[in-house]
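User: Fold this one for me? It's Serpin family protein.
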Amino acid sequence: MKILSWTAALLAVAVCGTACTSGAEATEVRGRVLDVPAAEAGPLIAGDLRFGLRMLDAWCARDPKANVVFSPSSLAGGLGMAALGAEGETAAEMAGLLGWPKDPLGGLKARSDALRGLPGVRTSDQVWADEGWKAGQGYLDRVATAYGAGVKLLPLETDPEGSRKAVNDAISDDTEGMIKDLIPAGALDGVGWVLTDAIHLKADWAQEFEPEKTATGAFGTAAGGRTDVKFMNGTGDFGYARHGGWTGVRLPYTGGRLGMLALLPDGDGRECPKLAAETVEAFGSGASGTRLELSLPKVDLSTGEEVGPLLQSLGMATAFSERADFTGISPNAGSVSAVRHAAKLRMDEKGTEAAAATSVEIEVKSAAPEELPRVAFDRPYLLLLQDLSTGEPLFLARVADPSRG
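Assistant: Here's what I get for Serpin family protein.
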């Protein structure tokens, strides 16, 4: 059984559910949770914010007229699991983009614990690997420590479509059905590892909007036109501040642990936002309770894309190239073939529901063609027939011209 080739320190259990009924059956292998020094989640969370704002800039620059919705947390989680197995230049680029400190394990563990402690939020991190490819013990321990992730073994190489269905079904389950078919047909051919992060949020406003006050109003679009949309209208005490050319209103959700910061730029807002992390952080400390009238559009947004080109434009190019080094995952791990992300966000008078998922797909490293010695008997040669046990020469010949008898 191939699982026995993994070290004895690992625990193997059968994993069933939707992934077993509609796709290939997965078996889970888990590493040890390491005893790492306690660390604050703050630096990692600040890194997620800066990474998210850079992604937003790149995404918007591609089409300033389009809606964009994504989860910096989910993207950072999926990429982070890959970064834990990266080496050399690959690791340096990924750590730089994600804003990681030199030793991120303690901070990543604190970040994961903080996410899992949020009310109304469900997160899932998972490494999926082909049954035939080993992952290093050190990598298994790091992803277990940082993300609470195990490794689910699937027949990615021999049954990529069944494996794809298993991964997609797991993501659908983890996002309450909001993210379906993240990975398209044929995408896992030649892939040996898929790293997935999923997040689902459902929260009610601490102060709900009254549906009877919802009314149609005009919205000036980024394309320069105007369109009629449904505005939720309410009067209440909200966190409010102005900073750096932005007006911020913070809307809390029930329980007080979650909140939404709505940011309105000065001017017409038609340009891509170029929002600085310091501005967002200033609203966190400076927004005060102010009684105001608020009109906020109801939204139902969705995005689904392969974001590899955006990541490369932000400086993470090596991971997608022949120079990629993910040998910390496995000697057989090649380059990243795709990073897929999908997100949905619905906001109405009652509250917000949102979900996102990320998959990072890593190819199996192609072996270089074996250099075989070539010997051509194209000139006179000898033949020696022997008794191999004694070396006795039974026949000896010299072939001077094979065309003659």
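One thing worth pointing out: The domain at 215-297 is CATH 2.30.39.10 (Alpha-1-antitrypsin; domain 1).
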